Each structure stands twice: as C-alpha cells, then as structure tokens.
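[job 0412] stage=fold_complex status=start
inputs:
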Amino acid sequence: MKITLRLYATLQDYLPPGTPGNQVELDLPEGATITEVLESLSVPLALAHIVMVKGRHVLKPQLAERVLLAGDELAVWPAIGGG
Amino acid sequence: MDRIVRINMSDLTTSIEPVPANWVGLGGRALTSTVVAEEVPPTCHALGASNKLVFAPGLLTGTSAANSGRLSAGAKSPLTGGIKECNAGGTAARMLAKLGIKALIVEGMPKDDKWYSVHVTKDAITIQEETETVGLGNYCLVRQVQARFGKPVGIMSVGPAGEMKMLSANISVVDPDVHIRSLGRGGLGAVMGSKKIKFISIDDAGTPPVMPKDMVRFKDAARIFAKTLLDHPVSGQGLTTYGTNILVNILNEAGGLPTRNFTSGQYAAHDKISGETMHDTIVARGGQPSHGCHPGCQIQCSQIYNDKDGKYLTSGFEYETIWGLGANCLIDNLDDIAEADNIMDDIGVDSIETAVMFGVAMEAGVLPWSDSKEMLRLLREEIGKGTPLGRILGGGAGQVGRVYGVTRVPVVKNQGIPAYDPRSVKGIGVTYAMATMGADHTSGYAIATNILGVGGHVDPLSKVGQVELARNLQIATAAIDSTGMCLFIAFPALDIPECLTSLIEMINARFDIALTGDDVTALGKSVLKIEHKFNLEAGLSKEHDRLPEFFSKELLPPHNAIWDFTPEELDAFWDF
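[job 0412] stage=fold_complex status=done
writing structure:
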C-alpha cells in the first residue's frame, strides 16, 4: 500500500537522498505502523515531536500502535514553536 | 529610586513623582493596565484628552536576566474601545529601567496644532516642538533622531499612520540595529498621534545597570533560567533556527491556516511562504536567520531578510504577517510580503490588522486576490499618504467590512483575528473570544498545547478542555507580560519546572521579597480582572466576548470544522 510522508524543518535531512522537497511516497507492507516507517528512514523517535496523519495529531504513546492505511498522509516535525 | 514620570501635553509640562504604594509591586502590563484602569475614564474618547498613554518596563527589565527587555504600552484602544496593552522589544525598555522610570505616562493633548518630541535623560525630561521630522516614515525618522543626538538613543515613534490617527497605527520601537519593532495592536499609534507626539527619545547615559537587592541569589537564579531557555528544544533551537514562520506548514497540515479570508484551512502554495523556504532564502542571500529584538535576548527568533541583491529588506519578519498577506490574501511571493512588511513598519501600521484588512478588502473587490503589486501600491500610495481610500483601509478590517458591506469579517471587539482559524484550533478561538485585548493570539497562546505539543496536548478539533486551557494561559501570560519577559519563555515554562521557579526567584532577589508561584498566578488573575472591569465599564459586555457569526455558519475545509461553543460555555472563562 502507498502512503505519503512529509518531514518538516530539520527532519527533512532524513528523507531518502535525492528526494525533491520534503515529501516522499512510500510503498509499505499492510499493517505498517508509524514507528516502523520512521525507523525505516532512521528518524530518531526522540526527534519526532509532532506527528499528524491526515491533519490529525497522533500522540507519542500511540506511534508504535498506529497502523497506517493506504492513502494516509503522514507528517512529522521536531519540536518547533512560534507565535 | 524608581519614579513615575508624567508628560502633560495640555500644558507642555513634565513632573516626576514617587511611586504610589499600590504600584510598587507592579511592572509591565500589570502597571500599564492598572494606571489606565485607575486614571482613564472607560467611556472617554480614545483619541481625546482624557485618554492616557502609559509606557512601562517590566519587573526584571534592566537586569542581566535573559529575555527581560520588553516594553509594555497601555491606553484605551481606539480600535477595540476597550483597554489595550502591547509589548515589544527594542532598546527603550532597558533604558527606562536604568533611568529608574517605572512608568512614563503621557496625558492631555496640546491645544494647538503643533507636533512635539519628548527627550528623556537622567537629568531632565524636555518637550520640544518638531517640524522637520513631521511626516517622516519610521526608518528615516529613527536615523535622523539618532544623528541629532549623535548616539543610539532609544526611540518610540509614530509614522504617518499614527500622525493621521488611523486605527491600525502602531508605535515603533527602535531595536539594537536601528531596525523597527512594534507595539503593534489596537491603534496605540493613533493615541500617540492624538497627543501630537512624533517621538520619544531616551538617553540612559550615566546610569548604572539595574542592581538586584540580592545579587548572589539573583545570579544563581538567572543562570538556571537561561539554561532552561537553552535546554528546551523550542526556545533553544526551533525558534532560533527558523523564527516564528516555521508555523506556516504545520498550521496548513492541521487545517488551521486561514486562507482566502478564512474560507479554507489550507493554502496550496504554503511551501512558497513557509519558514523552511524563508530560512533557505535568508541564508542564500547573506541575511541573518537569527537575530535578537532586544539586548539580552537569548532566543533570537528575529531575522534579517535581504532582497535578491543581498540588500536589507526587512527584519522581525513574523509568521502572522506572512500568513496574513500570504495564505489569507493568496500572495505566494515572499519578497513582496517582505517589502510590504518593511512599508508597514515605515508608515507605522500593525501588520496583523493590515493583513486581515487586506483579506476583507480583497473579498470586497477593492483589489484582486493575490495581487501583491496593488497591495504594495495601496500601502505606499493610499494608506501611507492618507488618501480617502487609504484612511478607510487604515481603519482596519472591521472598518473596511462596514464600508464595503462584507459579512465575513474576522474580528473580535473590532480587532483582526490572526493566523489560526478558531474552528479547527478551538483553544485559540476561546482566547480570541475572551481576551480583554480583542482578537489577540498572544493573550493566551493555545497553539502551544493544541498544535505544538508544548505543555501537553489538547485536541484542537474538540471543545473539551479549551476554556480551561485558554483561561490558564491568559492568566500566566498576564503575569509574564508584567515581568518584562518575552512571551516565548512560556515554551520552557510549560515543560521545565525550573524555568518558572527560577523566574520567580529572580523577581524575589531583585526586590528582596518572597513571592510564591501562587502569588504570581494571583497577579495574572488580578491583571485580567482589572482589564475586564475596564472593558465592562467601557461598554464591552459579554456579548462582545463572541466570534463573528460566520464561524458558526460556514464549515472550514479540510476538517469541515465549525465554531460550536455556547455563550454559557464561553462565559465560564471568567469563573475564577
């Protein structure tokens, strides 16, 4: 199944080499979790501070259990702020 | 010895008074709001002689405490009709604190039509007639004033918009690099203009740094406090690297980036105006991605943005400005937005009010959507020169909505709603509705907990917990605004306990007192209640603590979110 992953701010460095912009389409086995996706790209889980799937927050304790579905859009940020 | 300075513009006299006993423990917002509440009739005309314009450094300003150099200003707002407090960086607050000026109160107004400046030193406060600086933009003005004195004096000034008493006019504060910071919201520039003061300059020569009463205790606390700012990933790294504009992409992803005058929560061209793009552009053009707005700033969220030729274009280029002219007006050209930011600083208008206004003006057909060149022309040629159209636009979003019969006008208490759609980020919606300042994200920054995962998490799309969140944040903010601290210390304060305890310890060492955390919370509550009472007496009733009707009628894509708080749920905000 295919999902879209977007890594923002300093996490862009963890995208596969040559990725244009900050977005990549991934082909995942059924049942893949958010944690598995991040580990597959060597994104340190400690840096994955804000995680959203289709614009909805997924909290840290749920990352290892949250199974992704075909067409999901996964977005991840380090700790950022503003205002 | 701290003192109160009064500048009476009715008879062009000045006076110095001891600090009244009930003002001794106050600073920053607590002091400016208290002075306004005690001395300004709530029903007075905000641009009349009865209003007062109050400037105050915070409780810790002038000390070596990191990020303690914010200047507070207060008055009755001509935009909202209620009380107003703004704070900004720059050099003025530290200078006032070193001069021992706890508050500088401008009152009355001249009987003639002349313009004046005020110069403050340790020896004298002088009022002088101004001629050659009248009509100048802020950038030209601050250079002329510093050249006049031959040194980097602190300056608070108004541009042409303030001289014309436009409701979006702000007060500019010069920063350490002779760039402009802004006491932005609520039309305080119009109040200063009504008193016919073009600028106030401050020379702190011959004054020592502010010395805490217990220096050893203070230094220990200041060290711990500074470390918490460094240790927290937002204040120590995120803000420093990307500035506030890093928020474009995350609000877009969350469906809370108001687009095309609040008709969608996502903007297709978000990447072109994002913090990541801006950072790369600044670096490529030899600008400065990190920069402090006041001496002693450790967070450095400001920046210097250069044009394509590597020449200075603007600084202090904030998310709310970029959102407002970007997604809100469908302008995807960051250089044009930066140029607009520079013009707004120069003519002296609030970049949030003006950006929200342009969204309404585009909806009204005053200019086409995404037409950045016409937007720049309107700023420069109409607002900046005070043409009839410019005076309408300079009155802000509410005024333009009324003049052109627009019903989708995002304002609360007539002040433009910034940067975060209240339907899909409901905590900030409660802040917008209930803030004593009108729509003001800085009054209680629920984005931290709704979106950014700071201070825990409250689901932005659910009503649950939002009133309590907004209440607690507004109480904490009112207290922080009284210390002279930058509000961004709230990020570590929400997550690292030592941040708040060391902050309180610094205040205790500064004055040799024994405040507790409960005392600081009580101070925040007291400030809010003083401001709320003023608003009620000014005629801003609970019916004004509401969002515009369209937020309850129009679903916001992509989540099809709606504003669904009942009046009773909102009114519970004041149950403390």
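[job 0412] summary: The domain at 3-202 of chain B is CATH 3.60.9.10 (Aldehyde Ferredoxin Oxidoreductase;  A, domain 1).
[job 0412] exit 0
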